Amino acid sequence: MTFKNAVSWFEIPTQDLSRAQKFYEAIFQIQMVPLDTPQIKMRMFPLEDTMGVGGALVYNKEFYKPSSTEGPLVYLNANPDVQNILDRIEKAGGKIAVPKTMISPEYGHMAMFIDTEGNRVALHSIPSK
After folding, report:
1. pLDDT digits (tens, 9 = 90+) for 88-101
2. Which of 2, 26, 71, 72 has its CA 20 to 30 A from that of 117?
3. Which residues contact 20 (CB under 8 A, 6 or more apart)?
């Protein structure tokens, strides 16, 4: 297996989403794109191509905790299907934390696991066009 990009998506936790959005828009001179779900509020970094590496600022008080020691959540590229990787997680000694979940038809699926070291890592796959 080879990767075009090893990282597919990243999320940066926030305590105050508006404040964080203003900061990132100012330093990068961009307009972030809102995408809020019932569980998570997001401000996505603009992408030229949805097949490229992307990321967002995120807020969910119970799920995300900004930390200078624990760092952002990294999504690894799991194309063509997140489930292919999930099927190997437990056998390799990890634990599935979030099963395959649809983000949206255009943004594909995600899942999350705990690796053998106790790290929270996520996967992302996007449908081929």
Report:
1. 999 888 999 999 99
2. 2
3. 12, 14, 43, 57
